[in-house]
Structure formats: structure tokens, C-alpha cells
Write a structure and sequence with these properties.
This protein has 349 residues and is an alpha/beta fold. The protein has nine helices and 14 strands. Strand 12 (310-320) and strand 13 (323-334) form a beta hairpin.
Length: 349
């Protein structure tokens, strides 16, 4: 496997990070000026409209035989992948850089940077009609789901990257660390058989994990591969499109997910670079060495001398007066010795 050097990534990142995107609330109005700027370097088309007639765009990049489809923000309140995508676009503009030139030569990428602009506007998981696009891959009730499926069918990619955010509750099993990045190679049916397509998907994840373990060791988790028949990743995998889920989670004191966006970008770039350069995709067993995600964290825990009086809180987010506002909400009370707090306050007796 060709694993990108961490030092190279760190040096490059300061030059390609898209500084005009920041924080957790990213809307179509935030990315449209960037899309127009990138149209001078890449092919950009509007593939359709959302339920509330907001535009949905697609980039086409590169000229290689290996075809890769990437989409972000199918859940409107999950924008870390979108920030990472624009970091990636800035990287690929630098055609003199060896990593970029290799990708552009070997791969053709199609990227939908924001699939659910209505949900993004409201900072909600669902679209304007309360449809969860990640559970609409079979019924195709939503315009946005239909657009994604048409893009998939027309492009016929070998690999897909499905970019999500995960909640701060997830930790890496048998560690005291949050799950900063988590991966999933979706199942194709209920038995969770290791089909040839799943093995190929796992192989790419193995390469991404190999890089991240150099950067954020023991902060990478693996999602359960329980089969969801209406989920996008499971459906696409079943159709023969090897689909990699990247879930951006929490890193210490990073509620804006700016550090996490960097690691999301690293994983995405490494995955694409591996597809571009590898001639053998057989190694998949190390996928199962990635620890499971577990639900072991709360945002804040008030520890009391009597364990039965511990109180755990989670942040909730709402749009108030056109501003994203977070507030701590009581989540659990009682005996919480099995939980860890991203922040803990210990009260003396």
C-alpha cells in the first residue's frame, strides 16, 4: 500500500485548507461562491434542485479509468465532510503536486458537495419533507435521493465515498478515546457475508486507517455492519458499487470540528490515492482489527460523591435568529461509571 507521508500532509494542509468554511453549520450560500471559483478549474454542473428548489451541484474532475463518486451532507446537519471536500478540491487544483497529478491521471471523480441543501439550511438531518435521505435509497421518495441515484447509474463508479458526521457519544472500544473518525464497509444482505465487493471496500479502509493511526492513533473506530435494507451504503454495495462510509466524530475540545475536518480530509485523500495507485486490493483482514465504536461518552458529566447522583449532559443545537446555538441538555442521571465525559466536573462531598 502507498501510504502518504504524514509530514507531507501536514505541510500541504496549511496551504489548501478552505478558510472560508468554518464550524458546524454550512449552507448552500456558503459554498456557492466557492463552487463558482472552482468552475474555472473543474467541470461543474447543476444536476437539479432540492424539494425547496435550492440548487444541487456536481463536480467532475480528472481523466482516469478508475471512477469514484463522492457525496456529502445527505444529512443537512453533518457538514464536516463538506469542509473536507473543499479542502480536497483546493488540493487537486495544484496539478504540480505529485499526489494530485497522480489522482487526476488515474481517476475520474464526481463529487456532490451538498446533497441536502434544505436540511443544511435548517441544520436538520432530514430534508424539507422530513425524509431521511440515508434511508431512502429504495423508495426514492425525495428529489435529492433520485438525483443521487441517477448520478450513480449514469457514472457507474467502482468506488463511492459516503461522508457523514457521527455524534459525540461514540468512543473507540477498549480505550479512553473518542471515535474521531469511524469507518464502515456496508453489508449487502442480512448474513453480512464477506463478498468480493465488501473485501474491496475494506481494503481501501485499511489504507485509510493505516495513515490515521500515524496521526491520531487509537482514535479510529468501526461501525457495526448490521444490514439496513433501505440505507444508501447498503443498497449501493448490494448493487455492486463499493461504498465506503466515513463518519467524522469528536476530537478533544473540537466542537467546531476543525481538527476533525483535517483528519476527514486525510482519510478521504488517502482513500482516493490508494485507489489511484494500488494494483492489488486483496488485503482486507486488518479491517477487523479496527476497534468497534461504542456509546461510551457524554459531553459533560457532573460527578458526585454518590455515584447514583451523577448527571450527564449532551449538547443540542438549534438555529436561533440565524445563528447556530448550542445548549447543554440533561441526558442521563444516576450511576454513570461506564461513561466518560469529554468534560467532567467533580464535586466534593
Amino acid at each position: 500500500m502507498n501510504i502518504i507521508e504524514h509530514a507531507t500532509l501536514e505541510t500541504l494542509y496549511s496551504t489548501i485548507k478552505e478558510e472560508k468554511l468554518f464550524g458546524r453549520w454550512i449552507r448552500i450560500e456558503d459554498i456557492e461562491p466557492l463552487i463558482k471559483n472552482h468552475a474555472t478549474h473543474f467541470s461543474v454542473v447543476q444536476i437539479g434542485f432540492s424539494e425547496e428548489n435550492r440548487p444541487i451541484y456536481k463536480f467532475s474532475i480528472g481523466s482516469g479509468k478508475k471512477k469514484i463518486l463522492i457525496w456529502s451532507q445527505m444529512h443537512g446537519n453533518e457538514a464536516t465532510g463538506t469542509k473536507a471536500v473543499f479542502d480536497l478540491l483546493n488540493m487537486l487544483k495544484n496539478t504540480e503536486e505529485a499526489i494530485s497529478s497522480t489522482i487526476l491521471k488515474e481517476c475520474t471523480l464526481e463529487i456532490i458537495p451538498m446533497l441536502n441543501p434544505d436540511g443544511s439550511e435548517r441544520f436538520t438531518r432530514v430534508n424539507a419533507n422530513e425524509v431521511d435521505l440515508n434511508r431512502d435509497a429504495v423508495a426514492l421518495e425525495a428529489k435529492e435521493s433520485t438525483l443521487l441515484r441517477k448520478t450513480l447509474d449514469d457514472f457507474n463508479p467502482t468506488y463511492c465515498f459516503n461522508l457523514h458526521d457521527q455524534r459525540t457519544i461514540f468512543g473507540v472500544e477498549n480505550t479512553d478515546n473518542p471515535a474521531t473518525i469511524s469507518f464502515l464497509a456496508p453489508s449487502e444482505e442480512e448474513s453480512r457475508a464477506l463478498t468480493s465487493g465488501r473485501k474491496l471496500t475494506m481494503n481501501v479502509i485499511v489504507a485509510m486507517n493505516a495513515l490515521l493511526q500515524q496521526v491520531i492513533p487509537n482514535h479510529v473506530g468501526r461501525y457495526t455492519d448490521e444490514f439496513y435494507p433501505t440505507a444508501t451504503g447498503d443498497t449501493f454495495q448490494k448493487l455492486g458499487y463499493n461504498t465506503i462510509l466515513i463518519e467524522a466524530g469528536h476530537y478533544k475540545n473540537d466542537y467546531d470540528r476543525e481538527e476533525v475536518r483535517k483528519y476527514n480530509y486525510y482519510a478521504l485523500l488517502q482513500g482516493i490515492y490508494h485507489i489511484a495507485t494500488a494494483s492489488n486490493f486483496e488485503e482486507y483482514e486488518p479491517y477487523f482489527e479496527i476497534p468497534n465504536n461504542d456509546k461510551s461518552f457524554l459531553d459533560v458529566i457532573h460527578r458526585n460523591p454518590n455515584l447514583k447522583d451523577d448527571i450527564g449532559y449532551q449538547y443540542e443545537y438549534k438555529i436561533i435568529n440565524s445563528t447556530l446555538v448550542s445548549s447543554l441538555v440533561k441526558h442521563q442521571k444516576g450511576d454513570l461509571p461506564g461513561h466518560k465525559g469529554h468534560s467532567e466536573i467533580v464535586f466534593e462531598s
